[in-house]
Amino acid sequence: MTFRLGRPTMRTTRRGFLGGTTAGLAMTGPVVSARGRPNTVPIRKIATEEAFATPALAKAWLEIARTDPKASLDVPTGILSIFDNPRPGSNQDRFRRQLLDLDGERLADMDQAGVDVQVLSVTIPGVQMFEPAAASAFAIATNDHLAAAISRHPRRFAGLACFAPHDPIRATLEMERAVNRLGLNGFIVNSHTGDLYLDDPRFAPILEAAQALDRPIYLHPRAPSNGMAAPFRDYSMGGSIWGFGVEAGTHAVRLILSGVFDRYPRLRIVLGHMGEALPFWMWRLDHMAARRARDGRMKPLALAPSEYFRRNFAVTTSGFESPDLLDLVLKSAGNENVMWAVDYPYESSHDAVAFIEGVSLTGAQRASIFHRNAERLFRLK
């Protein structure tokens, strides 16, 4: 499929702020006041994995949770049932309220924590649980909902578009519309679709479109696919405690080992949660991939897995506040490929800010993580 791009139409309104009125916030060192005393200019903070939902999606997810609770491991993780009249004052009640809010409470939380911009993306499981036609319709409506929120608050929000991977032709049309007409900044895929992963050849038009549009795909976790779900059903292992990261990390390794990045060398994938454990595994991935290529068990790749990781991936800090992990991620991904995130509303904006402000980094590293890498990758300048 040859993918032709249209002319972007909505960049000036949404990005004029980012390149102009807040340019001073990109400064990270002291400046001199009119009275000759040094002042510290606050560093700009762009949070890159911030979830939202729409009332229509919440209603449809809840219907699945009530009528077919065994359809997906997403149901017992509780992510769908938070919309089912949760107990007032509970975390689930707060999640429901804050996911649906794209105005007052969310902006107040950002202001209190010092977050300048949220890059919004639809929460798991997105549109991918629905049949292809319904999923495509939900994607269009959800992206319109997102674009409307950004238009109300262009200085505070950017956004990642969802689409229905199991309808690849409609997906590529929606990807082009999202970038060129709605002015969105990339794409969100909530891991597997129908127990398939993006290395499957039927998804090739989607990868081609993302490369042609020069926008990244944020590969976000969801509960493990049915093919690997059984061991995760006990002990609440299917969600963020373990299953989410295993699922997304497995998806990313499939992309690397399948040769996807040899076919699409400019494709960019974003992984949250400090890289979904890939930085820890990188030496062994290199070691075993080389061994399997030598003995014929795997098709040789043009690069080592670690080289694809630095070239084709970016990593966000969402939901992880460990200095040791951040140091490992910076070494494996490279400083230019690490972005800050909160994972709002599931994690605390205040704590996420305090983590990067308090960890031992150079001024240039802190600025890159807080805003510069996001500005470049998501075209926020």
From TrEMBL:
It comes from the Bacteria. Keywords: Hydrolase, Lyase. GO terms for biological process: secondary metabolic process. GO terms for cellular component: cytosol. Residues 104-380 form the Amidohydrolase-related domain. One of its GO terms (molecular function) is carboxy-lyase activity. It holds the Pfam family Amidohydro_2. PANTHER family: 2-AMINO-3-CARBOXYLMUCONATE-6-SEMIALDEHYDE DECARBOXYLASE (PTHR21240), AMIDOHYDROLASE-RELATED DOMAIN-CONTAINING PROTEIN-RELATED (PTHR21240:SF30). This is Hydrolase. The lineage of its organism: Bacteria, Pseudomonadati, Pseudomonadota, Alphaproteobacteria, Sphingomonadales.
